[in-house]
């Protein structure tokens, strides 16, 4: 079956791109399997070492459980990418219209889902911020201990020290009038009435993340355009194959 110049270029691009996806997906999936079942990496020895160093629980969250869940996510994402890449690569190599259509539909669904997700996040950004703030404030009010003698309180104090901040919106979010020394620039003891009480942490954290907005937007737009091109190339190749049949 002879393809035109444009269809041949589309075929080559699809093969190259999806071969990369095959390798990438396989690599991510294997990494997830190793982290999930490789006892040398996340086995009992590492778990005991983390406990002895008192780093197995950070802010009330079990690090080992998080790592285990992350490994499962890597497996699922990796083999999904491998599957999609396989469909695209086989469809282009074999010039199989069914595989190409299935591939294009999956990529198109992912593309639409990403656009909808971004739109929803942008539309409900303030609600998202309020929800996150409420969660942090609830933890401060119910579980934080000013003496800092537990893992969660120590984690918050480390955050206060690192970002030179206090509370979520302000020090008023703290459960007691007496504040940890990290909440003041120099006063010790530190309290809500101190003149050098630091500002809230949420704005500082948000500002730091927002510094990378241009990078996130650039990468996101590039990925969306890339996916759109894959869909277009797939349909172009399908049309060319149909003409030659």
UniProtKB/TrEMBL annotation:
Alphabetical keyword list: Disulfide bond, Membrane, Transmembrane, Transmembrane helix
Compartments reported by the entry: Membrane
Disulfide-bond pairs as recorded: 165-201, 166-183
Primary location group: membrane
InterPro entries: Tetraspanin/Peripherin, Tetraspanin_animals, Tetraspanin_EC2_sf
UniProt KW Disulfide bond keyword: yes
Topology term for the membrane: Multi-pass membrane protein
Transmembrane domains' residue ranges: 12-35, 70-93, 100-124, 215-241
GO cellular component, one term: plasma membrane
Signal peptide start and end residues: none
Protein name: Tetraspanin
């Amino acid at each position: 079956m002879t393809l035109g110049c444009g269809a041949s270029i589309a075929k080559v691009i699809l093969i190259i791109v999806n071969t990369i996806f095959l390798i990438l997906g396989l690599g991510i999936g294997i990494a997830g399997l190793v982290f999930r079942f490789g006892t040398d990496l996340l086995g009992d020895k590492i778990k005991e070492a983390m406990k002895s160093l008192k780093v197995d629980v950070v802010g009330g969250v079990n690090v080992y459980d998080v790592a285990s869940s992350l490994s499962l996510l890597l497996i699922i994402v990796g083999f999904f990418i491998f599957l999609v890449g396989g469909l695209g690569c086989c469809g282009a190599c074999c010039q199989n219209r069914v595989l190409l259509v299935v591939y294009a539909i999956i990529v198109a669904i992912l593309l639409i889902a990403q656009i909808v997700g971004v739109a929803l996040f942008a539309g409900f950004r303030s609600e998202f911020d309020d929800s996150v703030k409420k969660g942090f404030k609830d933890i401060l009010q119910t579980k934080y201990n000013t003496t800092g003698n537990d893992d969660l309180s120590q984690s918050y104090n480390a955050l206060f020290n690192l970002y030179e901040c206090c509370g979520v919106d302000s020090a008023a979010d703290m459960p007691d009038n007496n504040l940890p020394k990290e909440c003041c620039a120099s006063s010790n003891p530190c309290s809500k009435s101190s003149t050098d009480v630091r500002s809230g942490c949420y704005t500082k954290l948000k500002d730091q993340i927002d510094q990378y907005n241009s990078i996130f937007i650039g990468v996101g737009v590039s990925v969306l355009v890339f996916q759109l091109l894959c869909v277009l190339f797939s349909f172009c190749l399908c049309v060319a194959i149909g003409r030659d049949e």
